[in-house]
Write a structure and sequence with these properties.
It comes from Lishizhenia tianjinensis. By secondary structure, this protein is α/β, with parallel strands linked by helices. The protein has two domains: 4-165 and 326-340, Rossmann fold, CATH 3.40.50.1400; 169-318, Rossmann fold. The chain is 46% helix and 14% strand. It contains eleven helices and eight strands. It has helices spanning 19-30, 40-69, 75-89, 110-119, 136-150, 169-179, 199-203, 228-243, 267-276, 294-310, 326-340; strands at 4-12, 97-105, 124-129, 158-161, 189-195, 251-255, 281-285, 315-318. The strands form two sheets. It has a four-stranded parallel sheet, sandwiched between helices. It has a four-stranded parallel sheet with strand order 6-5-7-8, with helices on both faces. The chain is globular. The model has no long low-confidence stretch (mean pLDDT 96).
C-alpha cells in the first residue's frame, strides 16, 4: 500500500478569546477573497477599516463565552482533535496511513502541518475539508490554500481531494442518531439551519443563469450538484426522511448573515416569525457544522433560545453536531478508503 497522509481541515478559531487573538483571526478569515469576494481594495477597506475594528470587542466577549462552555478551550479544537484521533485508530491495521489535522485559519496552521507531511515523504495525500456541503468560501478556500502550499514542493505526491460528503450515509446517520435524544413530536417547529452565503457566491456556481433559476430546493442535478443551497436542501431531505419527518413539517434556514443579500430564509427571522405565531418549542439542527462551535453553541443554542423566550416562546433546543460520533468517524473512514482502494 502507498504511504498515505490524510489532512483533515477545519475552518479555524482564535488562539484565545483575547482581543488581540480574535482580531488576528478575523483579519485572516475575512480578508480571504473566497470569503468576501469583493475587489482587493474594497475588501481591505471593508474588512480592515470597518468589520474588524468594530466587531473585535464584541466577538471577543462571545468567544470568551464559548471558551467557558469548552472548559477553557475552543470546542472546535477539542472535537477536531478527537475525531482525528478516532479516525487514525480506524487505520491502525494499515501502518502506512497517517491522519493529520489543520485549521484553514490560525492554528494548527496548514503551513506547519503540511510541512510536517512533506518531510514524511508520503506517496499520496488525501485532502479532506470537514465541510459536508461544498462552498467556495469554506471547502474551496481550504483546497486552494493546500494546493498553494503543495505546489511549491519540489516533489509533489499523488493528491486526492474530497470536495463534499453531504450525502454520505454515515454522515447522515450521525446527525440522525444525535436527534434520537429528542422527542420530535414535542416540538412545534423543526429548523435545519445552515451557515449563510451571499447569493452572488452561489450564483457563481453556474455558467449560465442564476441559482434562483435552478430547482435547488427540490432536487440535485448535474448543474447544481456543487451549489451550496442545493446541497443544504438535499441534506435536510436525507435527514428528514430517515427521521420520518414529512415534507412541510420542517424548514431550511440560513444563519450568520452580514447583509440582506444572503441566502434566505434567515434563521433568526424564522425564529421571530414562529414566536409571533405562538410556537413554543423549536428543535434546531445545524448540519453544515460537523463540530460544535460558536455558530451552533452560542448563536443557535444561546442567542436564538434567549431571543425566542423574550418573544414568548419556551425553548429552542439544539441537536448537537456530529462531533466525534462513531458514525461520523465511519463517514471519514469511508471517504478516505475510496482512495486507498
Amino acid at each position: 500500500m502507498k504511504k498515505t497522509g490524510v489532512l483533515l481541515i477545519q475552518l479555524g478559531t482564535p488562539d484565545s478569546p483575547s482581543k488581540k487573538d480574535v482580531r488576528r483571526y478575523l483579519s485572516e478569515f475575512l480578508n480571504d477573497p473566497r470569503v468576501i469576494d469583493l475587489p482587493w481594495l474594497g475588501r481591505k477597506l471593508l474588512v480592515n477599516g470597518i468589520i474588524v475594528p468594530f466587531r473585535t470587542s464584541n466577538s471577543s466577549k462571545i468567544y470568551k463565552e464559548l471558551w467557558d462552555f469548552g472548559n477553557g478551550i475552543s470546542p472546535l479544537i477539542t472535537h477536531t482533535e478527537s475525531v482525528t484521533k478516532l479516525t487514525q485508530e480506524r487505520f491502525k491495521a494499515e501502518e502506512n496511513v497517517h491522519v493529520h489535522m489543520a485549521m484553514r485559519y490560525q492554528n494548527p496552521s496548514m503551513d506547519v502541518v503540511l510541512e510536517e507531511m512533506r518531510k514524511l515523504k508520503y506517496d499520496r495525500i488525501v485532502i479532506l475539508p470537514l465541510f459536508p456541503q461544498y462552498a467556495s468560501a469554506s471547502t474551496g478556500s481550504a483546497i486552494e490554500k493546500a494546493m498553494n502550499i503543495i505546489r511549491k514542493w519540489w516533489v509533489i505526491p499523488e493528491i486526492n481531494v474530497v470536495s463534499q460528503f453531504y450525502d454520505n450515509p454515515a454522515y447522515i446517520d450521525a446527525v440522525v442518531d444525535r436527534a434520537k435524544d429528542f422527542d420530535l413530536s414535542s416540538y412545534d417547529r423543526i429548523l435545519f439551519s445552515y451557515h449563510g452565503l451571499p447569493t452572488r457566491q452561489v450564483d457563481k456556481v453556474y455558467d449560465e443563469n442564476l441559482c434562483e433559476d435552478q430547482p435547488c430546493e427540490t432536487e440535485i442535478n448535474e448543474k447544481n450538484q456543487f451549489c451550496y443551497k442545493a446541497t443544504c436542501f438535499a441534506t435536510s431531505r436525507l435527514i428528514a426522511e430517515k427521521l420520518g419527518i414529512k415534507e412541510g413539517d420542517y424548514t431550511v434556514g440560513f444563519q450568520s448573515r452580514l447583509d440582506k443579500n444572503w441566502l434566505e430564509p434567515f434563521s433568526d427571522k424564522l425564529i421571530e416569525k414562529w414566536a409571533k405565531e405562538g410556537a413554543k418549542r423549536v428543535l434546531a439542527f445545524s448540519p453544515a457544522f460537523v463540530a460544535d462551535c460558536l455558530e451552533t453553541i452560542i448563536e443557535i443554542g444561546t442567542e436564538y433560545h434567549e431571543d425566542f423566550q423574550e418573544m414568548g416562546g419556551e425553548a429552542v433546543h439544539l441537536v448537537p453536531s456530529s462531533n466525534d460520533h462513531p458514525r461520523f468517524v465511519d463517514c471519514l473512514e469511508d471517504e478516505i478508503r475510496k482512495y486507498l482502494n
